[in-house]
Amino acid sequence: MTESFELVLRQDGPELTTATIAYETTNFRNHPELIKLGINEEDSARFLAMYDPETGKTWVDERAPQWYRRMAALHEVICCGERLEGLIPDLPPKGDPRHCREVEKFVIRTAGYNQMEYIIYRRRMFNFLLTNNLNPDRDMLECTLDMLNHAKY
User: Fold this and answer.
1) Across 54-61, average pLDDT
2) Interatomic CA distance for residues 52 and 90, integer angstroms
3) Residue 31 in contact with residue 40, Cβ under 8 Å?
4) Distance CA 66, CA 62 (A)
5) Whole-angstrom Cα distance, residue 139 to residue 99?
6) What separation in angstroms does the CA of 97 have from each of 90, 106, 121, 140?
7) pLDDT tens digits, residue range 83-100?
8) pLDDT for 32
9) Of 146, 134, 53, nearest in space to 98 by CA
10) Do residues 102 and 75 touch, judged by C-beta distance below 8 A?
11) What is the pLDDT of residue 13?
12) Contact status, residue 151 vs residue 108, Cβ threshold 8 Å
């Protein structure tokens, strides 16, 4: 199912500049790779998010809270989809392990009331990815997880 939300990029008086962030929901419990590895029933799977470069679609788990789905989709759209990167000053280039970390910092700042819970869920997700070797870019995952483990909320 497709979901979307409007992200306010700029406000000039009554005028708003927005971007629509669209994403698809799925149930990662049914993902063939997770089933093959025998980890599809783990609770942390509901915090997974994925960007498909072939289709340009972002996928998040339908079992996660809606506010989390939005934040995770925003991360994927910027970090992996390379959209709206201009919102993050001095963003390291894609491929630099700090790229993901800086996008995650930006998303944390937008999380508002859910900031603490978002950080906790993201720690779980990044640990899940690392533990199960679900992303070959371990340096990027470890860099981002280190920031999350030291995040103040």
Assistant:
1) 97
2) 25
3) yes
4) 8
5) 11
6) 14, 15, 20, 4
7) 999 999 999 999 999 999
8) 96
9) 146
10) no
11) 79
12) yes
| Residue 84 DSSP one-character state | S
Would you place residue 34 in the very low, low, confident or very high pLDDT band (cuts 50, 70, 90)? very high
Reported confidence tier of residue 9, pLDDT bands at 50, 70, 90: confident
pLDDT at 153: 65
| Cβ neighbours of 121 (radius 10 Å) | 20
Q: Which two tokens stand for residue 77?
A: 């759209």
What is d(CA 47, CA 36) in angstroms, rounded to the nearest whole number?
19
Alpha-helix residue ranges (DSSP H) falling in the chain: 32-37, 66-79, 97-110, 115-131, 138-149
Q: Residue 132 in 3-state DSSP?
A: coil
- Residue partners of 13: CB distance under 8 A and separation at least 6: none
